[in-house]
Amino acid sequence: MSHLLTIADLKELARRRVPTMFFDYADSGAWTEGTYRANEEDFADIKLRQRVLVDMTDRSLETTMIGEKVSMPVALAPTGLTGMQHADGEMLAAQAAEAAGVPFTLSTMSICSIEDVASVTTKPFWFQLYVMRDRDFVRNLIDRAKAANCSALVLTADLQILGQRHKDVRNGLSAPPKLTLANLFDMALRPRWCAAMLGTQRRTFRNIVGHAKGVGDLSSLSSWTAEQFDPKLSWDDVAWIKEHWGGKLIIKGILDEEDARMAAKTGADAIIVSNHGGRQLDGARSSISMLPRIVEAVDGRIEVHVDGGIRSGQDVLKAVALGAQGTYIGRPFLYGLGAMGREGVTLALEIIRKELDITMALCGKRRITDVDGSVLAR
Ligand SMILES: Cc1cc2nc3c(=O)[nH]c(=O)nc-3n(C[C@H](O)[C@H](O)[C@H](O)COP(=O)(O)O)c2cc1C
């Protein structure tokens, strides 16, 4: 493990251990993948300000996200099919997040169900909601999240229509994978993944199958999404969702100042500046490049979080410096999970924590809550 020092190291190990179809599902963006690349690249253009001869003892990364204490401002983003990166992936990632003192967000499109994750955790996790045409099913999902003691609902606003990822089409993405010759050959090269997967019953979308009317087979994710996700979803729906949920609400997928102002008016607790990890509107700007404008637009009326392209603690520090109260990682924890299961998610979080701590110190700050634009080189 001593050679696994960066998120990129975990990515390379995951590439070897996870079947191509699922590794590609994580490591892809929509169409040309230009926004996916920009999310990462734009962090590199932001430079930090080196400070010296300041007391660096007793540092703390502790802060809050939507009023909840977090050991560092990094949550695990909701990701679909996480239980295909590694058997029982959502349960393992939630346990790793809980032990690390950071929030875990369970996707509607997870393999392990809300109840599965609740059964192996002791602290509340967050639940991400996709809104389907079948509103009874949506209300039922919200009720299940309440019953599982979830402490925040994350409403994803940027995926009512699916952006195309060419790799998923070419690979024939499905969960569980179809037993074609090509897939069998690919899986045969990944015995650890297969052994773990044979040891679990959780191989399809357990939030949905058995709960949504008439859904027995969801294996073709893209056609199911096209049929079931509600393209009419609008700002008016946020009000009834907020009311039915009755708890903390986070709106995810805001990339525009005007939308950010609208979100602030809904009375939600936070927004996530996000382009879905470059998986939806290819050609959109990177999340980090939009963050300062959105922070300015909402002017403190709503808490601002950000995701997309964070691959290191330096990236987290830059996001906080630009006004984010919290950040989320998607692919970094998925690579950890695919590489080494729960231990890999823990390692991904440790890598980011260590980088964040040292970077903060070298910028002359001892507390993450004191970090602001002054740590950036202009
Ligand atoms: C494989 C994968 C699946 C995703 N599934 C979901 C999902 O089900 N719901 C959601 O709101 N966002 C989903 N996202 C977007 C993430 O929540 C997050 O916005 C994105 O991963 C952040 O970018 P990063 O991966 O560069 O950290 C997914 C992202 C990836 C990579």
TrEMBL record:
Its EC number is 1.-.-.-. GO terms for molecular function: oxidoreductase activity. Keywords: Flavoprotein, FMN, Oxidoreductase. It holds the Pfam family FMN_dh. Its cofactor is FMN. SUPFAM superfamilies: FMN-linked oxidoreductases. Residues 1-378 form the FMN hydroxy acid dehydrogenase domain. It comes from the Bacteria. The keyword Isomerase does not apply. InterPro entries: Aldolase_TIM, Alpha-hydoxy_acid_DH_FMN, FMN-dep_DH, FMN_HAD, FMN_hydac_DH_AS. Belongs to the FMN-dependent alpha-hydroxy acid dehydrogenase family. NCBIfam families: PRK11197.1. This is Alpha-hydroxy acid oxidase. The lineage of its organism: Bacteria, Pseudomonadati, Pseudomonadota, Alphaproteobacteria, Hyphomicrobiales.
